[in-house]
Amino acid sequence: MSFRGHIRSCNNYDPARVVPLVAGTDRIGLLRRDNAAALRRFPEIFAVAGDEVRLLVGGDAGAVSRAVESVVDALVAENRIPKWRNETFDVAPRWGAPPVFRLDRGAVPFFGTRAYGVHLNGYCRDGNTLFLWVGRRSPDKRVAPNKLDNLVAGGIGNGHGVAETLLKEGEEEASMPTKLTKHAVPVGAVSYRMETRLGIRDDVLFVYDLEMPADFVPQNRDGEIVQFELMPAAAVLELVRTTEDFKFNVNLVIIDFALRHGLLHPDDREYLEVATGLHRPLD
Amino acid sequence: MSFRGHIRSCNNYDPARVVPLVAGTDRIGLLRRDNAAALRRFPEIFAVAGDEVRLLVGGDAGAVSRAVESVVDALVAENRIPKWRNETFDVAPRWGAPPVFRLDRGAVPFFGTRAYGVHLNGYCRDGNTLFLWVGRRSPDKRVAPNKLDNLVAGGIGNGHGVAETLLKEGEEEASMPTKLTKHAVPVGAVSYRMETRLGIRDDVLFVYDLEMPADFVPQNRDGEIVQFELMPAAAVLELVRTTEDFKFNVNLVIIDFALRHGLLHPDDREYLEVATGLHRPLD
User: Fold this and answer.
1) Interchain CB contact of A248 with B (< 8 Å)
2) What ipTM was reported for this prediction?
């Protein structure tokens, strides 16, 4: 798959297949029409119309979360939503706004609420050659088992900050001490909107780069990564370009790294589609 | 003006005010409706309808260019297009495609054809502190006189490549020898679509970073820059955030530099609008 192929597959969202999930005057999610229809049998919690689904429950985030949880319970029993993940994400009209409710991570694609993650490119330099640390995801992972991944990556759970999540995940996934991870440099965000089997992923990934000490070898602690390898960045990029070995969204993070570090060239026919395709504007 | 203010003002384009300029099956420009109406009196060259303007002249780029030139001549005489700049840009449906015709730079916003430029962030490091070379544009410049600018910036004329333009402009604008400029690192592209007094700017800027030797002082040769100054990057960013001292599109290039070098923080309320606002997808 070419670079643009990865970008397009992460942006396969088709607005015609979706209706907005609305709370008050704000859109807070994107429901595929089959998922919207499944909410008709909860008329006290959701009003399902042809052009939108409206959240009817008011009150504080705790009260709304409990009402939505009762719906998620029923949808899990129907196998419309996979098992609970027991990790909740804030649902809000935009980053930094107060949450309308909290939602179990397993239910996020069903409702198409925006999810935020943090990804770390851990790299080394040897002369002019760049190397990237690459992890292989455990065969037990629910999403993208066995696929290759960044050195550190994780979702931002409710109530947690970006840097805080990076420090915590760095420790759990790669045994990186805080005094190392805190030197990571925030370098932007990758965003995309993707339809999957479960619904809509409306994702924002905060991206960090960290030049790693030559003598540090990451070790996984939480069982989510089975192996780490330090690979020449050019070889990583060739894997991205020609295979689907990496988790779908990690391809975009690595292409962004390559772009920012001069590994792609303006003469490349894909250059502008890549340079303008990694940061889907948020609405 | 805030960071997002600069991004919004470079993207003030309103599709309702514009019709496409079409050649064959391709859109090649964006004509504001008043500019489209002004083409009605050239019915052998342009077919002006309510929803599009169609280029009627076929043949090779030379023949089409001559036909369009005759129209531009007449529009300059009417003061609808400013004086000839005697520098032509390729007009093509997309980057790298063969040109349909060549157009004088002064007429580009009238037709809203896509224009490409190259901008160089020349920076120095002192410990952990970054500095940026900033130029002040001559009071004689037609666009943005007296405004602050990148170390090197220029439009990509027809038949010239990106790297070639950077080397040439580096020499003319800052007396940079090729052996220095060739180490510049391509780091992506900034894109925006803006309505100005003249029409539509549909611009793509190829961005390069170059760490400059501490002992190199740029000197202008072509009269386009009257002064260079090395400023702390944080001070440059504060000028961008609080003033309109920089040329409109240079604000975006500097915000992109700041984002990639960790000078902005994910906690900032503007962060995601900035991170997703600098790379308008091309269509």
Assistant:
1) no
2) 0.94
